[in-house]
Design goal:
This protein is of the alpha/beta class. The protein is built from 14 helices and 14 strands. Strand 8, helix 7 and strand 9 form a beta-alpha-beta unit.
Length: about 375
């Protein structure tokens, strides 16, 4: 399962600075990570996960530092996030202003939206289309709603034609689309509408912009970042994040030791880019399970609520089709003994069946027969 985030916002809000910082983060990993920039405006970045290094220690305890002339493990593969840097949105984009349809077409492909909002003052950077953060949010929301209204009108007409056959599914589709249309025309995004499983199923494939989860990233000045971080610690909102794109750009140009010292001076536990990736997981309801062996240590992304066979299918469809069971231990329990062999001897590894709900940090070996 790929996590893809589209970075959107008005011009001159710091989107490109943030995206370039992500690319620098990626470039620093090129030596030990196979992914590269796919296009000039698309970058793939690893998900920060310290548990992978813990599993490396586990595997080496069980198999040694080398097997023959090969390092153990041969590969360390984290989960990834694909970031799309979308051109700045302007008023009237739903009618083709600016990049218009090209912009909207790009963001229809992503899993979630990251709306970068300007919350800093700089006389050298002209404000474009908004005079404050609240107006910034309102402008983007309005354009996305109007774009959805335009496409939904066409879809609804086609759905009504299909419903003339009185087919139950076609009739339900019309009812759901009319609910969404009503919400949009009242100025509210489609994501606010709670639908049942059957309702969700009939509109699957209809790629509405305002149905996508959204994360609001306030780009603040470096001088005010600590104040905003204190404020965010007191807030319960999971869809709001405070970052200084300028600071992130500076962090990515430093060595690991310099980064640690810089973060300490700034009173930050981790870079804002790490927080952005983790927040993306939260808004999409995703989690990672882990696998470990002499060939590779790897993180795999699944939805929260996935059962064991579904997780097995992420590795290979044959694993899901021929699923027998899953040997599972939590990462925390495994790190107490730091050996899968010892964990098995001590009875810490559980055999789970088809109805087991996967948990974040589960270390798993699947049993299957095809």
């Amino acid at each position: 399962m790929n996590l893809s985030l589209g970075i959107i916002g008005l011009p001159n809000v710091g989107k490109s600075t943030l995206f370039n910082a992500l690319l620098k983060k990626q470039a620093a990993l090129v030596a030990n990570y196979p992914f590269a920039t796919i296009e000039p405006n698309v970058g793939v970045v690893e998900v920060p996960d310290e548990r992978l290094q813990g599993l490396v220690e586990v595997v080496r305890n069980d198999y040694g530092q080398k097997m023959g002339d090969r390092e153990v493990p041969q590969k360390i593969i984290p989960s990834t996030v694909k970031f799309y840097d979308i051109a700045g949105l302007v008023k009237g984009a739903h009618k083709g202003e600016g990049l218009g349809n090209e912009f909207l077409g790009h963001i229809r492909e992503v899993s979630a939206l990251v709306h970068v909002i300007r919350d800093f003052e700089d006389d050298n950077i002209i404000r474009s289309g908004a005079v404050n953060p609240q107006e910034d949010v309102s402008t983007i929301d309005t354009e996305l709603i109007l774009a959805d209204i335009s496409i939904l009108d066409r879809i609804l007409r086609g759905a009504k034609d299909d419903a003339k056959s009185k087919d139950v599914e076609s009739l339900l589709k019309v009812l759901v689309l009319e609910k969404i249309s009503s919400m949009l025309n009242n100025g509210r995004p489609a994501r606010e509408l709670v639908l049942g499983d059957k309702e969700e199923k009939v509109i699957r494939g209809i790629n509405l912009l305002t149905r996508k989860p959204i994360l609001y990233v306030y780009n603040v000045s470096e001088n005010n970042l600590s104040k905003y971080l204190d404020q965010s610690n007191q807030e319960s909102s999971h869809d709001k994040l405070y970052i200084s794109a300028k600071i992130e750009s500076e962090i990515c140009s430093l060595s690991e030791n310099e980064q640690r010292e810089y973060l300490r001076e700034m009173g930050m536990k981790e870079p804002g880019l790490n927080r952005l990736i983790k927040a993306g997981y939260q808004v999409l309801g995703l989690q990672d399970f882990l696998t470990a062996g002499p060939k590779e240590v790897r993180a795999w992304t699944i939805r929260i609520g996935a059962r064991a066979p579904e997780a097995a299918g992420v590795i290979h469809t044959d694993f899901e089709r021929g699923f027998i069971g899953a040997d599972v231990i939590s990462y925390i329990d495994l790190m107490r003994v730091k050996s899968l062999k010892k964990a098995r001897e001590f009875g810490l590894i559980r055999l789970e069946g088809k109805n087991y709900f996967m948990k974040d940090g589960d270390v798993v070996e699947f049993r299957f027969n095809v």
